[in-house]
Amino acid sequence: MKPGFMDGILLVDKPAGISSAGVVASVKRLLKAGKAGHTGTLDPFATGLLVCCIDKATRLAGILESLTKVYDGVLRLGVRTDTQDATGKVLSEVATPALTRSGVESVCARFVGSGKQIPPIFSALKHKGIPLYKLARSGRGIRKPARQITIYWLEILEMDLPEVYFRVCCSKGTYIRALASDIGDALGCGGHLADLRRLACGRFSIEDAVTLDEIAALSETDSVGSRIISMKDSLSETPELAVDDKTAAEVLSGQLLARRLLAPFERNGSSWLKVVNSQERLIAVMRRVEKDGCYRYHAVFPRGNGTCHGFNDSTLRQTANKKIEFDNQKEE
Hints:
Elements: E1 8-14, H1 20-31, E2 36-38, E3 47-54, H2 61-64, E4 69-77, E5 79-81, E6 90-93, H3 101-109, E7 113-117, E8 126-127, E9 130-131, H4 132-137, E10 147-160, E11 163-170, H5 176-186, E12 191-201, E13 204-205, H6 212-220, H7 231-234, E14 240-242, H8 245-252, H9 259-268, E15 272-276, E16 282-288, E17 295-300, E18 309-310, H10 313-316
Parallel strand pairs: 3-12, 14-15
Antiparallel strand pairs: 1-3, 2-3, 4-11, 4-12, 5-6, 7-10, 8-9, 10-11, 12-13, 15-16, 16-17, 17-18
């Protein structure tokens, strides 16, 4: 394959029964990629869209993981579990009351908007370097502080009690398991998440995703590249700064951009900025530093299969003629 051929985003339809890390490992193996990652974990029982970043595109995960998510879920009322989903131990079971659709919708409406959510004790969040689910399984469950989330909208699709089928659009960091459990408690009977499927991440849709079997078939004919979304196109919602060839060369050597070029974006307050050259190729991503409101390099992408330059905090303060330092990239 040509150098840089696989740098980009691959949308995968994750099957049930495998972890997100397992899917990424399979993608990396099938594509013979140097690096691979994803932009948001799906629990093993869940299915749907997993946005996989390949090779240099792993440097884009920090941007893409903040995209809004859309899910279809099934809330099973009357049964509480320790994991808040169907894989856990049943804690209590009660008869489901005679609920009306309007009554359920009224309760669900309380959860729409910004608020705090307590992460499940069975989650991949870490405590002193140990995933919470490992601590919980050993009987040492740790309760993390509530985190700020946003539920943009929540729609009831169908009711067939004790099951409630819903669709939700939410922010990064929202646990649909916790949402389902909280709704069950608010309805007075408890509940858990019986099924979950991710439909979208930002503009990325499950309709454009491929299965692991399809990736394997495409890899055999060397045609998987037709499903790779370029790094530039994957950042279609990120503000863009187009530069001439002289400025592009300065960017690729790590020189700071002129303030006049960045000032319009700094005034708009966008968190991220992509820089493209005259050939409309992505050559850098910049991040807005909150303390001074200025943009600094997050990553620079040279031509060919050269190393992606990842800038740490000390590098951000270096002048143009100082040596660029590189981040070591963790492989999934």
